[in-house]
Amino acid sequence: MATVQIRNLSDEVHRELKAEAARRGQSLSEYLRVALERWAGYPTHAELTERIRARPPYTGPSIAAMVREDRDTH
Question: Is 15 in a helix, a strand, or coil?
Fold first, then answer.
């Protein structure tokens, strides 16, 4: 396992992170590890853009048509 050290973190941010970890019943190290693992799993902006571009175009009814139909039936 690797170790990460963060320098120049303000005392205020450190207190907030430590307090949040305590509220969750975790050590600061565990809280940050879980948060970083979750963050690392998120797709990048470029990956999201590519996923969106790869989707086929929407061919269903327009939102306006669906709203009109709903209003007409009520």
Answer: helix
pLDDT band at 74 (very low <50, low <70, confident <90, very high): confident
**Contacts of residue 24, Cβ cutoff 8 Å, sequence gap at least 6:** 31
Q: Which domain holds residue 39?
A: 9-54
- Does 41 map to a domain? yes
Asked whether the beta carbons of 20 and 31 are under 8 A apart, the reply is: yes
Q: Is the pLDDT of residue 28 over 90?
A: yes
- Is the residue at 46 inside a domain? yes
Q: How many domains are contained in the chain? A: 1
Q: Please enumerate in sequence order all residues whose Cβ is within 8 A of that of 43, keeping only pairs 6 or more positions apart, or say none.
A: 51
Alpha-carbon gap, residue 18 to 11, rounded angstroms: 10
